[in-house]
Design a protein that fits this description.
Mean pLDDT: 96
Helix content: 40-55%
Strand content: 15-25%
Largest sheet: 8 strands, mixed
Order of helices and strands: HHEHEHEHHEEEHEHEHHEHEH
Amino acid sequence: MNTNCSDITQNYYRVDKLPHIWCPGCGHGTLVNTVVRAIDKLGLNKDEVVIVSGIGCSSRAPGYLDFNTLHTTHGRALAFATGIKHANPKLHVIVIMGDGDSSAIGGNHLIHAARRNIDITTIVFNNNIYGMTGGQYSPTTPYGDFATTAPYGNIDKPFDLCNLAKGAGATYVGRGTAYHAPLMQKLIENGLQNKGFSFIEGISLCPTYYGRKNKKGDVVNMHNFLKDNCVDKKVVDKVPEKGENKIIIGELYKEPKPEYTESYKVIIDKFQE
């Protein structure tokens, strides 16, 4: 495990692609670092790690990361990742998506990958908006909030992505934030160790579009909002009223179930006997 920041950068980033081009104050850089540190903590072989993305702000991540990486079409990252996992089940397949990429155009792939319980670790960088394409509202934009396509306030009810993944069949579900980076790293470590479909939501910051449109203040204010309005599930389990009107973070669900590629191999072996 590397403890030095410079070692982390040299070992896991394509340094010739840096500095990144995310907006100042964007939470995505912090979230990417939690992914890298989780991989490093577990000591995974770089050659056995594949990172897949679709399209969007979050999907710039594979370009900066020195692993086997694949930048795919919008909403289709999980479809590509499913093919990779089937071709070589020994690989650690990680998908990084945004809220729009995962739950709008890619929503069907999300629910079916979760339903199959295929061994993929999916990490959604949720900044509540389509940041790269102009600030349109997404399926996670809070009710009443503003976007370029909701100038009078969003009237769509937002998805709870973690409940969606759990309901679809994910066997590991967790939620962290760009403010709670150590927790986020731990959730990703746990997701990578879960034999099945793991879903981790990372609440990010978009000061450029979401923050500015909704008068959330500067980046420090947006971090303070996460600090003051998130409560760990362990606390809520003991004192439920502490979770009222708060964002529940931490390990939300875990239940082992048969993994898809292993079940598929049983079928193949049966017909080769």
